[in-house]
Design a protein that fits this description.
- With 78 residues, this protein is α+β, with helices and mostly antiparallel strands.
- Helices cover 37% and strands 13% of the residues.
- It has four helices and two strands.
- The chain has a two-stranded parallel ribbon with strand order 1-2.
- The longest helix is centred in the middle third of the chain and has 10 residues, at 36-45.
Length: 78
């Protein structure tokens, strides 16, 4: 399921160098490991003004809902 293409939000445009934590979810999925616990652990490490950048094979629409319920915003691009 693809979500509607959105304009890049200001908070993405203004990210400072080094402000992101990166997780490659493709590695988890390749080995049949559920990635959500790792994402939740990374979210606990986020400081104000940091972002969590995820690499995925498909757009994680369900994860967007979970993160939204936790108060996080999301933005994706190909």
């Amino acid at each position: 399921m693809k979500t509607k293409k959105m304009d890049k939000p200001e908070w993405v445009k203004s990210l400072a160098l080094g402000s992101e934590l990166f997780v490659d979810l493709r590695r988890f999925l390749r080995y049949g490991v559920e990635p959500l616990p790792a994402v939740e652990d990374m979210l606990k490490e986020l400081r104000p003004c940091q972002v969590l950048r995820l690499a995925t094979k498909e757009e994680p629409v369900l994860l967007y809902t979970i993160l939204g319920d936790m108060g996080f915003e999301n933005y994706s691009e190909p």
